[in-house]
């Protein structure tokens, strides 16, 4: 009886260990190394998006970037990569180890999700999702736009994309139109 119980416990432990091992996310450093190598080989910049499985705006950002109307434009100009952060305790296995430290490095830990940065192939910060006063340095806290949706957010995103890519005004208009679809519908006034 004890042997059977021991065998059952060993089996359960082995199966659960395999299941946990299959959900191990790559280290943030590994994700970066792959993105830098690809960006360097393809002469592109990097869009790094911090997101979480529970984040509805993160899903909208991903859907917008992958929309057939603009996916090729992004793929031709950027290496797009993600780091998972701030998961609920039951989904902590989805987080990339070291990602929260990277988010803090870019001063995005209080900005909400998605938080994104644009880097060159060497890892230099070119832009992020924070709108700052004109002329303010990058280390000045700003208002994070997350997934661009409002007219002001989409205009800022288009400005950042234009400065960090080879996209022309016509292509930027297509991207802007797609991201504008993320704008929440107005709520009807109640009487």
UniProtKB/TrEMBL annotation:
**What are the boundaries of the signal sequence?**
1-21
Q: Name one Pfam family in it.
A: Thioredoxin_7
Upper lineage ranks? Bacteria, Pseudomonadati, Bacteroidota, Sphingobacteriia, Sphingobacteriales
Q: Which domain of life is it from?
A: Bacteria
Gene3D superfamilies tied to this protein: Glutaredoxin
Q: Keyword annotations for this protein?
A: Redox-active center, Signal
InterPro entries per the UniProt record, alphabetical = Thioredoxin-like_sf (IPR036249), Thioredoxin_CS (IPR017937)
* Name under which the protein is recorded: Thioredoxin domain-containing protein
Keyword Signal tagged: yes
Q: Which organism is it from?
A: Mucilaginibacter paludis DSM 18603
């Amino acid at each position: 009886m004890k042997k059977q119980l021991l065998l059952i416990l060993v089996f359960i432990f082995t199966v659960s260990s395999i299941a946990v091992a299959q959900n191990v996310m790559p280290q943030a450093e590994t994700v970066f190394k792959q993105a830098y190598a690809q960006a360097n080989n393809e002469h592109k910049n990097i869009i790094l998006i911090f997101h979480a499985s529970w984040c509805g705006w993160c899903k909208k950002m991903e859907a917008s970037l992958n929309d057939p109307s603009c996916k090729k434009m992004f793929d031709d100009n950027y290496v797009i990569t993600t780091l998972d952060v701030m998961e609920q305790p039951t989904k902590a296995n989805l987080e990339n180890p070291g990602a929260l430290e990277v988010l803090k490095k870019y001063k995005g830990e209080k900005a909400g999700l998605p938080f994104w940065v644009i880097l060159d192939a060497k890892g230099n910060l070119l832009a992020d999702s924070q709108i700052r006063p004109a002329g303010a340095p990058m280390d000045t806290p700003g208002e994070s736009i997350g997934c661009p949706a409002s007219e002001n957010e989409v205009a800022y995103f288009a400005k950042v994309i234009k400065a960090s890519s080879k996209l022309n005004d016509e292509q930027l208009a297509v991207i802007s139109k797609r991201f504008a679809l993320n704008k929440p519908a107005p709520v009807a006034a109640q009487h």
